[in-house]
Amino acid sequence: MVNLESLEEAVSSNNIQNIVEVLQEEWSSKTILNRLDKLANKELDKNDFRNVALLLKGIQCFCMNEFKSALSLFIQQGLVLKISIVINTGT
């Protein structure tokens, strides 16, 4: 199981492919969305919008290139709604 630190390392590497690889390993995990949420909130709390954008870009690449069915999972578990709320509120 990939932990939050693995996701943080992938984001800090500034390499979208590293993020995609972590997501590939864990995309079916029930806790992956919670870990993505925690990491995004942690980066937002630090006002590190570049890392949040990188994380979102990694999620986008993952969904488009590897597992289109994962997008359905992200929608079902509320990640897409949360992203749209953050974008619309400017948070």
From TrEMBL:
Q: Where is the Synaptonemal complex protein 2 armadillo-repeat-like domain?
A: 6-83
Write the protein's name: Synaptonemal complex protein 2-like
